[in-house]
Amino acid sequence: MNQLGMEQTLVLIKPDALKNSLTGYVLSQLSEFHTGLRFAATKIVTVSPLLAGEHYAEHVNKAFYPSLLEYITGRVHYPDSPSNRRVIAIVYHGKEAVLKVRAIAGPTNPHTARDTKPGSIRALGTVVPIADESGQIVGDRMDNLIHASATPEEAEREVKLWFRPQDIPARMRLYPVEVNETPYFIEGDTLSTTYRAGLSSVIAPGDIAWSSDLDILREVTAGTAAPEAARLVAAKYLINRNDEEQA
Length: 247
Ligand code: CDP
Ligand code: MG
Description:
Radius of gyration: 19 Å
CATH architecture of the largest domain: 2-Layer Sandwich
Order of helices and strands: EHHHEHHEHHEEEHEEEEEHH
Distance between the termini: 34 Å
Shape: globular
Bound molecules: cytidine-5'-diphosphate, magnesium ion
């Protein structure tokens, strides 16, 4: 939150919502008329395993985690149609954005949502049993149509993970940015500051980047952060770039 009490929050319209043509419904529930919130950014994203893993990093040890990654990368709902595998990522901007959107989204579990918050978006979702390789049921996956950041801190991490500063109009940016001065390229986990064939540009000199991303890239270059850290920064800058990076 800044001085004016403005917040941002990340919404993902998940693959099950796209498959069920609920996009218009979700957008209408979250419209400025209902929430007082404004769009700050939108993007269609084919979610790479890397981006999915980073977005849901807090759940890495949960039984549902592998199935959750299959879900958010679109493999569950579009097993035979990779070009349909996408989410719509949106930044909403305004006072109490996080709380307002969480309330309209409803509880994580669609069954709970139907019982306790009928009318919330997630009340239209489903719960799917997850089986391990031997067929044993190990938990539930909640196909709950949308993601919504749970706290302002989580929102900052997630907005920066999915969006570059230039995806957001300058006057609406809430988090610190810098003009980058170093050419950064990546191949696999390896960050480089000199170009050679096969490398992907992450951030060019003169580009505006989140200060927190540049801090990580500087630390990786200096050897004071693990090389994988650069890959996570790069996940955002490589969004939609080529099939190999994607699901
Ligand atoms: O999304 P939210 O913050 O409400 O819930 P979470 O506990 O952070 O879990 C993230 C996502 O994992 C949920 O939205 C569900 O899609 C999924 N999940 C699941 O599949 N099975 C569970 N038992 C719990 C969560
Ligand atoms: Mg959460």
